[in-house]
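Long-time lurker. I teach an intro course on protein structure, and each term I like to show students one example going from raw sequence to a predicted 3D structure in token notation. This year I'd like something fresh instead of my usual example. Would anyone be willing to generate the tokens for the chain below so I can use it in lecture? Attribution to the forum is fine with me.
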Amino acid sequence: MANNKLSGEKTFDYQSQKESLPLPSLVQSCAKYLEAVKPFVSKEEFFYTEMQVHLFQNGIGKEFHNKLEELARNSRNWLQDWWFDMYLNYRGPLPVVSNTAGGVESLTPFDQPTLGVQYQRASVWIYYMAKLYLNIIHQKLPVQRQQKKHPFDMSQYCYMFCGGRIPGEKFDTPVNFIHLLPTKDGKVEVVANSKHIVVLMRGRIFTVKIFDSSGTLLTPPNIERQLLLIRDECEKLDDGVSIGSLTSDDRNTWYKAYKHLCQLDRQNKININIINEAICAFAFDNIKTYNLQDSCKHAILGDCVNRWFDKSCTAIVSSTGIIGTNSDHLHLDGNVGTTMLQIIHDNVQKCQYRWQGDTSLQIMEQPLELQFTVDNFILNAIKESQRKHRRFVALLDVIDKPVPGYGKSYAKSVGVHPDSLVQMAIQLGYYTLHRKVASTYESATTRMFRSGRTETSRSCTCESKEWVDAMFDANSNRETRKRLFRQAAAKHIKTLGEACDGKGFDRHFYVLQRMIEKEGQPTPGIFTDKAWKLSGGDGNFVISSSLSGFFQLHGGMAPMIHHGYGAFYTIEPHRLNLNVSAWKTSDQTKCRELYDSIVEALHTIHELLLDHSKL
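-- Reply from a regular --
Happy to contribute to a lecture. Here you go:
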């Protein structure tokens, strides 16, 4: 395709042309489900599962699938509302479990952890974040494409900015202050008026305008001056009440506190609206992070004193100038968020965190602290939220460390898709550690379609199980193991591709479940059969994984289940960035051991394919 600048192509030019998300046939989904459960059940158990699937396919499943077909005929995306409801109905805490978080490794002399550069680096980061925001508003962000040909739905790229959520009694309400407005000629106009960010520092929250009265973006020196004014103000005062700590709690507890805040003073509600409307949030922590492990761990497991977890994106700046992020998964998927953050990172790398432009100081509006009215109920709720958050995050173990040598270049040299290489290493690594296979979730983007989000790609297949079994079978020779590896890798990429093409089955079954539940019908046997949960149904995947992109930035979150693992990664040309997580309270999981086992599995695969490449 032509370059954006040459073709005049705008970011959202293809929104109205995107195909509707296809609805798979019930026969197809049932057949794929049966194939997916085989690695986890015996022949006798599979016979019973087949019977339950047959009953579902020809009974209540067929009835509700017909209803879903009718909904799909009148919708551009039959999944969208149900998917948003899943996030909004969730009543647990957002940090760790729902929010995504991560960072980037310091690899150059000018981005090394250094005391005294926190505000200067943050000002440059804020500037390029705002430039990205402007590029989206003015539709100058290049359109992403599948295999460099087919345009993706780009709507998610709006929602890193100017967004948040409001806690509710039974479900939350999304809040967005950036909108896509269709025009008569089939194009799209972006409507966004936010001109400020919010800064969280020492338990206080400030609003900072980063555009002057004429709408011009402030330069980094002027942004830094605003940040230093906030620092100086905070140093004169005691620490603030840390109202944002409430957002770390479960949604029911936060809702009660939110309702009480609004009743105490209408200004409290206005302040929260100002936070949600802000382009982004920036948290300045008095924490020293010196490496990738520290940075990622702090972004995922950091204290809640300087956080607003309901915000679509919060950049977290340590006292050594290292920047991580924490984002609400409601608004955008991980691969979209990391792509946008990588764009910002690339720009700060190019300028080496140094501003080369105009350094003159402008007359600006002073930063304004958001003053909350609180009482003993709120103060006690804040203390309790902080206590619960600190206890909760202490339970999660996270290993974040690059693996050199196993990037895109290596995968290409051995004729394996890079993602398949990593997924097979995860399968072998888990099997080596636990001597059994694990139900594995991998997110597959469906942004080829209108308002597409994700579909589940199940990476543990009959083919991958046969391969890992062979790797521990003394009677299996090298050629057999190599052949089985190739077959497993091919099946993985086929399954992933089908999921991206809207031909998965998990989202289909999810909506049918919710429709049946909503109408008060008994739960069908297919969803109570042991094979359903064993294979990952209802979010019971033992391994939760995702490839966030082919670049440096990455991160992770908690496993889906207590005895499970998170395995999140990005793939660069010459290395793999791997983030593994597990709950310390589980006696079945070992975070460090799984990380090491995956790395060892990569070495084992290399040895298996050694005659085809040089590492």
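Some talking points for your students: The first helix runs from residue 4 to 7. The first strand starts at residue 100 and ends at 103.
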